[in-house]
Specification:
The protein is 24% helix and 26% strand. It is α+β, with helices and mostly antiparallel strands. It has one domain. It has a four-stranded antiparallel β-sheet.
C-alpha cells in the first residue's frame, strides 16, 4: 500500500484492517507464555504461529507456513502436489 488507495480498497486489502492483528490467543497454564497466530503485516494474509514470553515481553515466530513448505514441496508425492494446487 502506498497511501493513495481509496478507503474501500484499503479496507479490502487489509481484510477490514484485521491483517497483522493477533488472533486465536492462548495463555499457557503457568501464565509464562502466550501463543497466538498473526500475519507479518497489514496486507499479508498468511498467519504464522507466535509465542510471547510474558517475563521479557519478547515475541518470536515459532512456525511460519511458508518456511515449513519451502523444502518439503520438492519431496511431495504427485497426489499431494495436485491437492495443494
Amino acid at each position: 500500500m502506498d497511501g493513495t488507495e481509496s478507503f474501500p480498497r484499503r479496507q479490502a486489502l487489509t481484510r477490514r484492517f484485521t491483517l497483522g492483528e493477533p488472533r486465536d490467543i492462548r495463555v499457557s497454564e503457568d501464565g509464562a507464555r502466550v501463543v497466538f497466530l498473526r500475519s507479518s503485516g497489514p496486507v499479508d494474509p498468511v498467519n504464522s504461529l507466535w509465542v510471547l514470553d510474558v517475563a521479557t515481553g519478547l515475541e518470536r515466530v515459532v512456525a511460519d507456513p511458508r518456511r515449513l513448505t519451502e523444502s518439503g514441496d520438492r519431496n511431495l508425492p504427485p497426489a499431494e502436489q495436485a491437492r495443494r494446487e
